[in-house]
Amino acid sequence: MAESPYIRVRGAKEHNLKNVDVDIPRGELVVMTGLSGSGKSSLAFDTIYAEGQRRYVESLSAYARQFLELMQKPDVESIEGLSPAISIEQKTTSRNPRSTVGTVTEIYDYMRLLWARVGVPYSPATGLPIESQTVSQMVDRTMDLPEGTRLYLLAPIVRGRKGEYRKEFAELLKNGYQRVKVDGEFHELENPPKLDKKFKHDIDVVVDRIVVREGMEQRLAESFETAIGLADGIAIGEYADVEEGETEPKRITYSANFACPVSGFTIPEIEPRLFSFNNPFGACPTCDGLGEQLKVDAGLVVPDKDLDLLNGAIAPWAKSTSPYQTQTLQALSAHYRFDLKKPWNQLPEEVHNIILFGTGEDEVKFVYDDGMRRYEVKKTFEGVIPNLERRYRETDSQWVRDEIAKFQAAAPCPACGGKRLKPEALAVKIDTLDISDAGAFSIKQAHEWFAQVYKSLTKQQNEIASRILKEINDRLDFLNDVGLEYLTLSRASGTLSGGESQRIRLASQIGSGLTGVLYVLDEPSIGLHQRDNDRLLETLKRLRDLGNSVIVVEHDEDAILTADHVIDMGPAAGVHGGEIIAEGTPEEVMANPKSLTADYLNGTKEIPIPKRRPVEKAKRKITLKGATGNNLKNVTATIPLGSFTCITGVSGGGKSTLIIETLYKALARKLNGASAPPQPYESIEGLQHLDKVIDIDQSPIGRTPRSNPATYTGAFGPIRDWFAGLPEAKARGYAPGRFSFNVKGGRCEACQGDGVIKIEMHFLPDVYVTCETCKGKRYNRETLEVLFKGKSIADVLDMTVEDAAKFFSAVPAISSKLDTLNEVGLGYVKVGQQATTLSGGEAQRVKLAKELSKRATGKTLYILDEPTTGLHFEDVRKLLEVLHSLVDTGNTVVVIEHNLDVVKTADWVLDLGPEGGDGGGQLVAAGTPEDIAACEESWTGKHLAETFRRQDERRAARNKRVRAAESAKTKSKPKPAPKPKATPKSKPKAKAETKTATSTRKPAKSTAKKAPAKPTAKARSKSPAK
Known about the structure:
Mean pLDDT: 87
Number of strands: 33
Number of helices: 38
Shape: globular
Distance between the termini: 52 Å
Strand order of the largest sheet: 5-19-20-3-21-22
């Protein structure tokens, strides 16, 4: 039977899908789009991928299945034509500090193999290569000397060690040796020298005396074997004659193992595990291969340098109630003559060192008086930092440890300098670089270095290395193709954004070269600048051209237009979604009047540009000076307060470092009293205008199914209070706690308030069955008898937010919180929906709603990192309304964003770059979006100008359509239907003319064929006008 050309899905009802039937063409690039929460992921991941994965896993043995994560069987009638499925999701790779970009991409594994097989060990003492020789090679090397050369063959048995060595001399004499050379002098073993055991000595045994001539190979070989046996693999050939102008005879060192003949530095064996910082065999013993150690950090001990010593400049001492610390400081100030009331930053450096690191040898007179007794003592002062470190080492109390840990920060390991490996591993080099030097390269630099490294290898080494180098170069190629050339190989994978880690996985999938597989991707364009988007789309096409089916859940305009097949889900989100609104080629979808996506693509709807707030005159602003973290090159950035500011720039340009790692952490430390250390910067001005800083990210709002939007936004408290205040509840004496499903009392004890019972099935997926006692309502019968307007608390949790807001309209405490959830476009979410089932975009909007429901002070700074992740054009429009309303109340919103629809609505834009990684870290431009669009050097500017142009085109096309529709109406009533429909069809033609990168000529031709003659002519006349 021939392979079915479609993946046929029948009757999908997972989550909010409403009995969806769909045929997805195989071997094509299929894009699923639609509003956030409309059921795209439910169809792509929870139905198609889950079933493909499950069928593959079920073909394995029962034994193998228990080790794999098993997927639930999705709620679907049938799926035909499925191939094994691989999902490439956004979840960040492991948070383990041992996991790096190099290890995740397997490049580091190949590098370990390369260094183990063709690396040359160099001695750290002499800097010369250490090579091991066989006895035959030693003989050949000796025979190459000029004939008649006289040599002593010595075996060095003692090198620089103290002792008398009488026993050793006697042993050597017994074994038949006659002479030794001690500290440069020859002695007969019959009367050995008396050695002073207090001094270090060098002792060599004379094994043989040689005159080089033909035919003595056998004798030489035996002598070398004897010498090597005596001296652990080292033999020395010393010239018997001293040449003119030399004080000592020349020596030739022969070594049978990887050992430096001078320092005796040995490498036991060179194996790939020697280069692994996750293996005790290769990891630096001081830091266990982490490259850093926790040390008490002076910056954390004195976080606020504007305070004086009496007012808590020294943070670990600030909380203490005992007079001991104050009296210590008074004694120091009396002895070293400094003023305790002076701010820390005005005290001399010498005083800083005395207080932090101690007085050294100086003894100081301390007077201690605790109100009961008084005593004086003269002693040295150990210093705040050594004191904390000593207490940390010596204490048994976990509380003291945790307290001191607040003042510790990671510092590079003193032994390996942050290189994570033993000295033995770092001694092995290729082309003068050790493996950790090569690991510090960015992918772009690594690509250049590995491409030319074969030139520095010998022919034999190249034969060994060629296959390893091919693997490394291929992987680096793919990483370059998906726009990750700015990442360094040694970067911890926990610091990558979701989009970056997803593209790393994508690169390794292309590297695997599988065909006939179904790939399901979740928004791979997240965190990717418009500039790199084309490269990503090419990569996806490459996956498709290998013979795979690629399904992408994506909102990006270019991706939708590039796809072979588009599926638009809708019509709205949550309970109002779960249907397929339009499907087909991009052109067919764009011609569909029901599709919301089409409305945005053809200009019927748009994200409007609001009136800009004047920023130049802004009195209130915050300035961060001299930021130098990661790749930032001394950046000074000013953010106008009370405005909407966007931070843009190519991936890896330093946006997150500047805003999250430096600005947010520095402000959080000053305003919120956080302890996380920011990246280095010089100063911050304008703090007086802010009272708090809030970072709203896309991390889940709760990791347990017990957390839900109502508990997170704080609406659940007033709801429980309201139920507890009802007459029936009062009569029964129920407190608000009775209406919580997390504590005993009101909840159903059979399922402990979960509503479901988990039954473990070992090698089958765990089965969740609805609790029989409460029928999934989470509460016991008595609690459910308390009704308000005929609804119990369980019914309220099961309502959507919009219904609940109407239901509680008379209770402002509840309705105000639910209304804000409605405002951010989450009206479709159920009040008690488990937090784990919310998408990233939804979780972020729940957080925004929580912020909106607080009383505005107008002095808050909100920081959002790529808030449009997972959002459709319509969702973006709603989100921007919310953010702009935050700004209208006087707050400041700073958004790190690649989405140009957001950037164009900003009041002020800071563009970082110009490139990613080392080529970035500078402020390229700052100004209004129009200023950025006019900037030549800015990549963002180029794409922003294109967005403005596209918007004008669409507006013109829309006005034309409206006019055409109106004129058609006035001319004749029955005709108007085909015209507005046909015009959007001709739209892709116009776009194909202007934008060759994404859309090819083919769709334009097919459109021209399909559309009636009149509109095509119109489209032709329209495109030159642009």
